[in-house]
Automatic annotation (TrEMBL):
It comes from the Bacteria. It comes from Streptomyces abyssalis. Residues 36-64, 99-122 are annotated as: Disordered. Residues 49-61 have a biased composition (Basic and acidic residues). InterPro entries: LD_TPept_cat_dom. GO terms for molecular function: transferase activity. This is L,D-transpeptidase.
Length: 186
């Protein structure tokens, strides 16, 4: 009986050691994911942004001048970036988008229609569609592909879908109801 107890103790110790190793690697993987989501820099490796990277990020995310006031969506055609602006001039959210092949003209528009799920003008199933303009006979709006893709604009076919990541599309959907102002700038 003593021999069986000692073999059982060895198996238990090995099992505990194996679980500890698996737990350690799981913790490391989780910590790496947390660092990546926090915006770790590829260039420095330390996760810290250099001063130049901070300045570039700030320039990229600064709200364009002369983009209106009040509650609105601001879409910068040159930077492929959107800002959701609260009535008090506070940025609720900003994010990059993949442009459509047909751009709206710079100006002020209003959200004209919305659809929870449709097939985009490029044939891709999309959600959270927020339409605000028509240009060159093509309806222009923000949407998120169900497969999460952010395609390059198709220069052969006229498409009006300005693609967002799904989380950004959800934020746009909740923010930009019918009649919400959309300011397009260059």
């Amino acid at each position: 009986m003593a021999r069986g107890s000692s073999a059982g103790a060895v198996v238990a110790a090995l099992t505990a050691a194996a679980l500890a190793v698996v737990g350690y690697f799981t913790y490391q993987a989780s910590a790496a994911q947390d660092r990546a989501e926090a915006g770790a820099s590829d260039s420095g490796g330390s996760g810290e942004l250099t001063e130049r990277e901070k300045e570039e990020k700030e320039r990229e995310t600064n709200l364009p001048a002369f983009s209106g006031a009040g509650k609105r969506v601001v879409y910068d055609l040159d930077r492929n970036r959107v800002w959701l602006m609260n009535p008090d001039q506070e940025v609720k959210r900003t994010f990059r988008v993949a442009p459509s092949s047909v751009d709206p003209e710079p100006g002020t528009y209003k959200v004209e229609s919305r659809a929870p799920h449709v097939t985009g003008s490029d044939g891709v199933p999309v959600e959270n569609v927020v339409r605000f303009a028509t240009s060159q006979g093509t309806t222009i709006g923000f949407s998120a592909a169900l497969d999460g893709s952010l395609p390059d604009a198709d220069q052969v076919r006229q498409t009006g879908g300005i693609r967002e990541r799904r989380a950004d599309g959800e934020a746009m959907w909740l923010f930009a109801t019918i009649g919400t102002k959309v300011v397009v700038v260059r």
